[in-house]
Amino acid sequence: MPRKNSDFLFALFETQRMLRLYADKLASRYGITRAQWAVLAKLERFEGLKQSELADIMEMQPITLTRLIDRLADNGLLERRDDAQDRRANRLYLLPAARPLLAKLAELRADITEAALGHLTPAGADDLVAQLQTIKDNVRDALQDVADHKAKAQHHG
Q: Cα 110 to chain center, whole Å?
């Protein structure tokens, strides 16, 4: 069912840009960037990842991630440890100083969420999140269709 809403992509991209800008401004209170915050948050959930695994999860170029990790390590928030199975790899671990910062960042996340959803009812906010998940799933399916089509074209071409 085709839809004609020329403002959809602009509104979505502009909302993302504004949220990133707001998150950067709030994160700067603690001397970090939104990108550094994202690294810490991922490590909080998946501590012990290899740098390459974290780069994949974050869909980030390894060199960009290395710079972020260097800064976080210099600030005493995380450390690299040798991987016992792969001498070429490092695994990433949070240092104790990161825990109180992550607690403060969780409060900032709640503040950002409240600012963004503040004029919505709880049910409206839940509906919005569900709709965004559906949009994400639709785009993921479209990406898979493109990949499948490309693979078929290469196989038959």
A: 16
